[in-house]
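Progress note, sequence design subtask.
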């Protein structure tokens, strides 16, 4: 796969299904490094590296969520259209859930094989009302929200040199979230599993269940102890949920 857009954190490529992971706002591919090692070795885990962060920090980050999804879908489509691609699933956390969903919709629009399953974490469905003006946030607002949600080494936020590197991506991602508008369309065929923390200030169980309306397949909800970044405290359990979801689809196919 295109090494500009995707990262692997294992030296051996699994021979099972591929799991494509989409990071949260301000996040990078390395957000899923520990999860990669918690998953069974046969799962080929690739993590999306958005422009504007880490080794892509010199590139302009996307400021529109649908444009970001289009770019990722284009990269995935090349492999799917070439034929012989292994079965795959998509997993997104927070903003990454929306990017993964829009990516799946774009692939379906182009008649390409959809994911075996879509895993969406820490986010309500795309048509969940959003009255938070993220696109109007200044730097102080963005940093206050990042601190509120946790999941980031708080000491990093006090380092001016690190902030200089991460703020462009954070600004762009918050802008993309604030301007994102759901465009109604056909539900996807892929089964959907939603995962949330039971004390996440951004999404509750009722909101997570709204994903069921966006698939013609099965829907499942997994609730874990914790807040918005519950997954980093429950890597084993999250990896098990992802693995079980992939095995379910493999058995059905």
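Output:
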């Amino acid at each position: 796969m295109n090494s500009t857009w995707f990262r692997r954190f294992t030296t051996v490529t699994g021979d099972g299904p591929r799991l494509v992971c989409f990071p949260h706002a301000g996040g990078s591919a390395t957000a899923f490094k520990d999860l990669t090692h918690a998953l069974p070795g046969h799962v080929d885990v690739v993590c999306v590296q958005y422009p504007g962060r880490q080794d892509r920090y010199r590139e302009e980050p996307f400021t529109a969520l649908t444009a970001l999804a289009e770019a990722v879908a284009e990269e995935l489509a090349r492999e799917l259209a070439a034929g012989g691609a292994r079965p795959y699933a998509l997993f997104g956390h927070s903003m990454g859930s929306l990017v993964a969903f829009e990516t799946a919709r774009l692939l379906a629009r182009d008649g390409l094989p959809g994911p075996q399953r879509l895993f969406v974490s820490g986010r309500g469905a795309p048509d969940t009302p959003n009255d938070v003006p993220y696109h109007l946030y200044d730097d102080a607002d963005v940093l206050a929200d990042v601190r509120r949600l946790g999941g980031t080494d708080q000491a990093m936020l006090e380092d001016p040199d690190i902030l200089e590197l991460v703020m462009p991506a954070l600004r762009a991602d918050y802008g993309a979230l604030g301007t994102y508008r759901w465009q109604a369309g056909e539900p996807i065929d892929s089964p959907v599993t939603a995962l949330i923390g039971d004390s996440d200030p951004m999404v509750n169980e009722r909101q997570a269940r709204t994903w069921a309306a966006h698939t013609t397949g099965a829907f499942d909800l997994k609730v874990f102890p914790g807040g918005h970044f519950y997954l980093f405290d429950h890597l084993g359990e999250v990896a098990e949920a992802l693995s079980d979801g992939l095995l379910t689809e493999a058995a059905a196919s």
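The chain has a mean pLDDT of 91. Work on this subtask will continue into the next period as scheduled.
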